[in-house]
Amino acid sequence: MQVGSLDIALQRKAIKNLHIxxxxxxxxxxxxxPNHLSDTAIRIAIVQRIPWIKRQxxxxxxxxxxxxxxxxxxxxxxxxxxxxxxEVIERHGKHxxxxxxxxxxxxxxxxxxxxxxxxxxxxxxxxxxxxxxxAAILENWQKKIGVQVDDWTVRKxxxxxxxxNPQTKRININLELAKKPPECLEYIxxxxxxxxLERHHNERFVSLMDxxxxxxxxxxxxxxxxxxxxxxxKY
Length: 235
What we know:
By secondary structure, the protein is of the alpha/beta class. It has six helices and eleven strands.
């Protein structure tokens, strides 16, 4: 759908309300509309939200992005908001990734290892770091909120930091959060767990977030200011 100069990705679904999203990193406008809603009504709703849409797109355009990683010694990598310099060490034997002190990320590989293989090793290391921390805080927050997830996964996600399916009680967490300060992961986890009590971003949802994590807005705003993954959304 075209509304003025805006290209709209429109999806019609068996839902009650119309939802408008501006999706990073490119500011794509996605509209989910009830099947019964006319095109005219959809256009009116979009026009009313144009100032908000423009602000979101501007924020995404101005948000810094990480450069692509070449997996060579000296480049920067981040874990829990802290910068580490990569040190590639060629050796025989097991490939692995280790932290050395507070400043180095060591990547042990055999001679001739491809960039793609090195990248995969680092990705899986990030995944293990995020899973370990998530498992450590999940039980505590489930008790505080009074909910229980049936399953959770860590995934590469292009458009969301997390997601929740209240029906299956399943949550997904973006792998990129391993690079961000720990409070960002905590905010996203609480956000998704609260969706098990209230699936919509309404006043009740905000009230629940205020009760469980009073500083959640600070963590949300911090996450918005930090660099996004580089353009192809891979490590």
